[in-house]
Fold these 3 entries.
Entry 1:
Amino acid sequence: MRLNDLDERIVHALAEDARRSYADIGELVGLSAPAVKRRVDRLRAEGVITGFTVRVDPAAMGWETEGFIELFCRHNTSPADIRRGLSRYPEVVSASTVTGDADAIVQVFASDMRHFERVLERIAGEAFVERTKSVLVLSPLLRRFSSGAPA
Amino acid sequence: MRLNDLDERIVHALAEDARRSYADIGELVGLSAPAVKRRVDRLRAEGVITGFTVRVDPAAMGWETEGFIELFCRHNTSPADIRRGLSRYPEVVSASTVTGDADAIVQVFASDMRHFERVLERIAGEAFVERTKSVLVLSPLLRRFSSGAPA
DNA sequence: TATGAAAACATCCAACG
DNA sequence: CGTTGGATGTTTTCATA
């Protein structure tokens, strides 16, 4: 499922502003509005574009505290187990299994330090978790694309 | 800059589908289309909503390889220096200064391992970088919200 | 200060060439 | 893929609470 240059430029335009009109995008990439719509529809059908979402200032949503939690899991813990365990936490915005010492890296948004600590303790108490190591975000420097499935 | 219940429900509706019409959202939250638009306009003006973007399957974009790079920087490196240095890499999708041993955590998408390695070497060669430590993502388990400023 | 109704305007999208 | 035109959505104006 390879994208050509036109598709990439359309996706890029949508990444910058997903509410931009098809006519605007068409002007940008040299296509008519319906042609752009047809490509966007095709990209959605193919699963390249999985949806449209809003970019939000976390602080404004009351999420003042952000951090990463490294998970060291018990033996015989599958990625699916981790996923299932973590999906119940609304504070978890992203999680991945990784190479290296830790088994997974989990990104968490919390309202404040107390909230973050409470989430950390609950995650550390999960049956499949052996120990954790966490770092707090001081300043978010860059936040670019959005990917994957909705909440 | 506190949000009331109505604002939160509007933001939530947009987070699920940013191209949903104002009339649809209005029906959902019990407002007319113009009332929803005015609130969205206000949220944008206040910086709560920073934009609208598309959710993309990274693999479909040709980004098969994902990883985190911990940055250990030279003394007197400011967050702005790191931001400036990293913003030139299109492969960098997120970066934050953090507590703990490392100074910053950088999330990178690359087309394959060779590409990832090339980016890693170039970042490690930046003047402000002393050393790096990186892990590769094995499986992305969860990907939820989008936040922050556009590219 | 915030709302809804309505009108003017823009965009979308299915049909056709 | 582009053009067309009726349907749908957006945005301004206006009156009201």
Entry 2:
Amino acid sequence: MNVAPGQLTPAKLRAAPRLSRQFFNRDAVTVARELLGKLLIRREGRKLLAGRVVETEAYLGQEDPAAHAFAGRTTRNFVLFGPPGYAYVYFIYGNHFCLNVSCMPEGQGEGVLFRALEPVFGVEAMAQARGIDLPASPRVTQLRMITSGPGRMSEALGITCARDNNKDLTSRASDLWLAGDGFHPERIVATPRVGITKAVERPLRFAITGNAYVSGRKIG
DNA sequence: GAGGAGATCGTCT
DNA sequence: GACGATCTCCTCT
């Protein structure tokens, strides 16, 4: 299993170094792989919510038929073509929001989709946001209902288009950011992406091997 | 546990 | 008007 380094506290979450613009100023495959094990942190007033990234997908801009950026820049996807490190949030299937982060220098249209988190802090608040009543000692099968899937993790962290689209995830002023706490996954696995109909064969989905919070069927 | 269908609405053509 | 980077509920095994 992948064990976190010590118990996370608000102080540790605030002290964890934020990922910089330079981190995201690379190709989407590199960013997608290196985001695994990092912390996605949300500040809700005085409270913090955090999840460890366990599953991502890379979308390679205008050369990738499955990417929103494939058809070029639109009023919807303009964030992907902007500077690296910005949140691209879109609404899908009439029900769900999905969170991406822009990669590469301006104009490339590359991005990484966050697909699943392991809830590590503020778990009860995240469950509440999802409409889930957790027992005192929740099982993993109950916990994974909170953030295992792009729509689920967005709901758990209160991520919406109106609130978060085009937000700078590297800014200290942001209430949504990514940080590293020294955790590095032992092994990661690459598989085809989920829920797409074009370029389905390319192994651009990345997950921490054996992690219970990866969405869909257990892999690795 | 696995598979199928419906819900629901913004974006693009 | 069609479709979609999803989720949940229901049925069947």
Entry 3:
Amino acid sequence: MLAEQKIEKQIKTILENTIILKRRYLDDEQLYREEQFSVLKEIFDVNVRDREIKELSSHFAPIFRQDHPIHLSLLGKTGTGKTVTMLYFLNLMQNLCRKSKIELRYMHLDLSTPKPCFRVLNDLACFLDAAKRYKRGISLDELMCRIEDKIRDYPGYFVLFVDEIDHVRKDLDSLLKFLVKRLPQRLSGKLVLIFSSNKLDWQDNIDPRIKSFLKINEQFFEPYDAFDLKTILSIRIKKALNPKMIQSGVLEKIAAVSSQNHGDARKAVEILSKSANIAEREGSIITMELVDRAMEEIERDNFVAMIKNSPKQLQATLFSIISSSLKSNRPLYTGEAYGTYHAFCAKIKMRALSQRAFSDLISELDMYGFIQARVLSHGRYGRTKQIIVNLPRTLLEKLKQVVLMEFDLNPA
DNA sequence: TGTCCACAGGAAATACGGGGGT
DNA sequence: ACCCCCGTATTTCCTGTGGACA
């Protein structure tokens, strides 16, 4: 056989056995806006999130009567499609408005990482080209004025979509006061605010004076059920994968597990993506068993990535807790843990924090799910947090290793 | 019934760093 | 060069507390 033909044949078999055809379609962040919208269009075309879209439409209908829709609050857990649905909807709205010669602009403020009020305003100003990125050193008022100047003369509807509003770490009140009370008064156009949050009670801690001003509609996003997830996943499979390489039932399994655990579409796609990666690496097709492994691997990677990106003090805290809990095999208490932490700090020549601060670090680790900590009273033997480490031993060892590497130490 | 342990966790103070305005 | 402003991290100080024990 000629070399040319051989190569041709080899390439052909490789292509036939490839699992991932278009990797980009497994990760939203690698898609262009248009591609994202085209995926969304397919999803929404088959009646997923139908109810929500309908309600959004009726909420925004007043625009076509030159009326002013009131503000909107999107509620629902992460991965239930608040952001994508809203963006998709706003995009459609803009097209519709263009046809009807109505001026409409929208802007998406993404707070998926927590930010203080200052950052939020700064980001907004950047979007509007009203200011450059400051780290600090400029007053809040100055930022607000610049923002106002930029949009004061805009005649149409200005829709501001503040995503994950509860992530405003400090001074949510000032931000809302600006958005709700001050900004609308100084604009010639009409301002429509949209907030999204996964906390149902995000409005509870607002200053009542602002709250009374804030006329707001609520829109719930239920977690996806297995059926929805199945359609969402199958669209991704169609776009990205070679269907011959997927064992039957895999799709159903991912959908079922995801709907039970969280109803989070993003995570479901992530599981699919990870499974495909493992399968490709091992030259097998995607099987049920691979899905299980993918889920474990995702969880492990999450923990490792989380601790890698954490401050040194948190890493040291985790290390101390893991070490002493691996040794003793019984619950740990704050005092003891602080002791080992103190010793560890001495060893790596890092300044140890006060116990007060250490206690907060423990709570933080609990929030991230590394440990379980709860206050427990032992009567006259005091009240303290009980710390339980409840992760697989292999993962704990891995985490220890990671921390040591962060501190440039050999596992000795 | 009161005591008292070993902390929890809130509030305010302090330290620090870095950028803008002048 | 200087001062002021702001955000973050941490400390200091503090009051609160469930329940075993005497």
